[in-house]
Amino acid sequence: MLTQSIAGYLIVFAEQNSKNVTPASALYGYGYGGGNFWLFLFWLVIFFILPFLFGDYYQLLRLSGTINRLLVDLGRTLNQNMTNIISTIENIARKKNIATPARSEIENRIKDMIEYVVITPTQLEPQGLVAKLKHLMTLYDHRLEDLVKRIIPAEKPVVQNLASSIEALRVLNFIYKIVMHYYKLGMKYKNPWILLQVYMALPQIKEFVNALNGAIAAFTKGQPIGDSAGPLTAFKFLREKCEEVEPVNHSIENTYIARCRYGNRMIYVVKALGPGSNTGRIDDAVIYLVERCGVKPKMIITVDAALKLEGEKTGTIAEGIGVAIGGIGVEKFNIETIAARYGIPLYALLIKMSMPEALTLMTKEVAEATGKTVDRICRIIEENVRENEEVILIGVGNTIGVGQ
Amino acid sequence: MNDLNIFVIYFTTVTVGAIIVLIFITYFFMRKHIFAPPSGEIVTSKAVTVLKCPLCDYRLRRSFKEGDHVGAVATETCPIHGTNLIVEAVYSESEEKKD
Ligand SMILES: [Zn+2]
Question: Which domains are seen in chain A, by residue range?
């Protein structure tokens, strides 16, 4: 191709002497009087016809290669994590002398669990939707823990941690299936635009997969993750600032409520019951305190981990009003409802971190930020609450690796 | 003949310019892959557990052990009080790999 074009170029040069040769005719081979028609045709094909004919194929080739590599990586990650979870189960069983099924049987059961589906309620009529969602969430948590307990009947924190790692594996598997779906679809119809959609989301997918990978590692070891910043703040407040800490008796599962005295003010601290992986039933705890115990809080303070934007620094603290709770929004709805009914001011403190930091082992910046958050809470209470008044402080988030 | 000279100068300039631009673009694209060392080898993160005496400010840092969680009572003791230390924090710390 190159030699051809050079030859054509030389031919035009050789024809210099004929007449009216201009730079343009020398370069393009045609036009401005004289030149080479075949050379013109050659360029026409190269520049205009080839891209239109083979552009899609070239794109398809490039995109399918990239996505194929992603799928191979994803499959490997999935297998590694599956092995990791199974060996964690076996190690615990060996250490605590618990009988478990054979390795292949455990693998089959986990494979069943990662295909588990939760069918969300219909939203045709939104009346009572939150209660239905809460019911399903509770059911799902119980079911998952139940299935884990059938594999390894250990104590609750161990079962909760394993259930959470399997839940993360389920999300990983879901991503794998979605990417595979688009890959197969694109190749089936030979359509690069379908593959392009996956390609555009590729950086985010990779980031999320790495985060889930780290999450499973943290869950199997029972280490606190970035999302544990809220419960950790509540823990530090109780241990470092409070006097006369005493747990409140209640029957709400997976939840810890303590009453304590700070600067002659009564503080009710609510967090999920650690150190197993769970987020507790925080809305139930608030309803219990306000409606059953007759607590008259001057404010409800929620502390939670929040996603930062790319330019923000990890561990910065944002203050505001409202209820700082992520997830589907069931707890948020219930706390907002009760706060509105009794006219309780809602304060929120957010500890900023990126999504990978929220899901993997807590970073030093976040751990240090929780200390600063405790100081901030003290200041808010001193400024806004008089002595002998009551406050509810909620440490929102997964309490894995954080006791009480 | 004059026309041809102009053409040759023009053509050479454009070609050389294009090659320079190409080299620059390649450099800026490849710099990340060629010149920066692979991230996994230089910085590794490690789980650290910080233990604190419940009675004083004595702190002890050690690597994470299985079963450590915030609020747990550790087997290590305070050299001043002799009380068991309590896990104050568990976090990851990136460290320079020495080799
Ligand atoms: Zn001491």
Answer: 57-221 (no CATH), 226-395 (3.40.50.1470)
